[in-house]
Amino acid sequence: MDINLNMVDDNKNKLIDKSIDMKIDKRRVVLESVARKMFLLNACIAVISVAAIAFFVFYKGLQPFFSNNAEGTYSLIDFLTGTEWRPNDNISSALYGILYMICGSLMATAGAIMIGVPIGILTAVFISKVAPIRIKKIIKPAVELLAGIPSVIYGVFGLGVIVPKIMQISPQSQGQSLLAVILVLTIMILPTVITISESAIEAVPKAYIEGSYGLGASKIQTIFKVILPAAKSGILAGVVLGIGRAIGETMAVMLVAGNPIAGIPTSIWDPIRPLTTNIAMEMGYAFGLHQEILFSTGVVLFIFIIILNLILNKITAKAGEK
Amino acid sequence: MNRSMKDKIMYGFIGLATAFTVGILLWIIGFVFVNGLKYIDIDFLTSNYDSKTAYVNIPVSNNNTDNKLGITFELKEYEGINYPVIKSIDKSSRVKEAIDKKGNTIKLRKGDIIKKIDSQSTDNLPIVKINDTINNIESDTILVKVTNKGEGIFPMLITTLLTILLSLAVACPIGIFAAIYLTEYAKPGRLVRIIRFATESLAGIPSIIFGLFGMIFFVVYLKLNYSILAGSLTLSIILLPVIIRQTEESLIAIPNSYREGSLGLGATKLQTIRKVVLPNAISGIVVAIILSIGRIVGESAALLLTAGTVARVPQNLFSSGATLTVKAYAVAEEQGDIGMACAIGSVVVILILVLNGLSKVISKKLNRNRA
In the predicted model, is pLDDT for residue B371 greater than 60? Predict the structure, then answer.
């Protein structure tokens, strides 16, 4: 009897132990699944942010072109083809044309790419293929530092150095001009172009280079005939990112652009008003239709960036295929 | 032209391009420091930006200096007139007890301008005359009109610091958790592709667009007004790609055997992450935070539209304020004061240099540990 009782007791204890075990297990399982969901939720915030940004900017920016807008409507054609920007509380006498801003933005970006890309690629070549290790160790951090300098400082440099210099040589009295914007943007895209071209150059297989040397090519010939063509898609990705940076740059450009209220630039001495600075300059005090139209300017800018991102995706996907 | 000539010319181009890049960098930093460093001293870092004038009553004291107030003056030009400026304050002086007309204590400091003493103007008076004026007053307290000329960046330093803390407090958990999901939990598939695409897109969107979004969503829709909170929330979205990417990199670098060992000992996945994965990734996460700080310090376009340009020490998270870079922009654009902009710029560049150095040191340590 006694033994029997003991056994029952033992069994009972075991059962209790097991139930405690199960309780802990259950709690752990719940905790694990809660944690998993929390991590997932946080990962989705990036997605939600992109969606929210696109939604809000487009929602607000497209309103002026629909006839049921409470603040009044503005013709989409006039907006995209107008060359005058005269905000006015009275909608019938206000002019919101951004064609000259689009032209200014594109011209400045194109100019910066034309000067900045060759310089950037050659610097990348120097860093990864020509420079001795000791010099490379100085120049690489220097380029990183160039990338880390805030855009306002580029703007102050432009305003304090580039603009006065241009004023001396320009046929116009004003130094704030397309040329000043191009020069500032050139400097600003350099780090992007250099770092990305450099990693593309480093990724070129050694066999290509050795093969070229084996055929009797010189170092320079190898660089320009073998390495650069092989690194083409990587470099192109860097150029596209550079375009993105140039077209989206605001603060530095705002200080040196001049920001006129009308006129497509016809020479590099003309002042321009890029899309970005149009938003930043007037958003502080704009309301009603004026504010919505500034969002429309943002929509145009956004569309440019989306197109660039799609191109970038194509390029990087191609590079991945290799 | 023979081959070696051609090669030499190309070497020349490569050298020129590099010289341009490095030269521009040196020129920019040199320009900012040469124009800016002369402004920087303790006063610049600790005083307000806006000038402030007040009438204060200062109790007289017994001291060995030239006047009853225990203050020595020097003459300095301000707005075209020579005024006496506080050069030093004696230990025995009772200026600490100075009170304004509302009864608030006002702290007088070195560099403050004394414009009137007991209703007598001090315009262009020699110092001896000023001391005489003070010593001829018989009452226990002397009424003085003081101007603190401001031109300091203390409010912007505080605003920048607050913005850094607030943005990191929001962005770090989100970014790190997202990176944990991507490396520890996610299986390759549509969802992961979408998340990665979104992160990349976030990195490519120009900051003025973030500013537009922040303005319409945080400032107007959530009614936060132009405030540090709205600015920081906008910034934390900008920071997400930086933190996610950097953290992911350091998580991927942790050998799988660590995780397997921990799981093999019976730890749950969550325990493994908390006790094994995260501690090993800590230096990568610190680098992510430092890079984010650099980004916050340098950001301006988004903050211009969400946090405003007021150069005052923020009372709370809902008051608007300018960070260093926003103020540097405002000073250059609205006042055309390149010197002041460079002074603020120097502070920013020094900050960036320190942050760059820190992240270098930490990543070096990280690599050594791994090897």
Answer: no
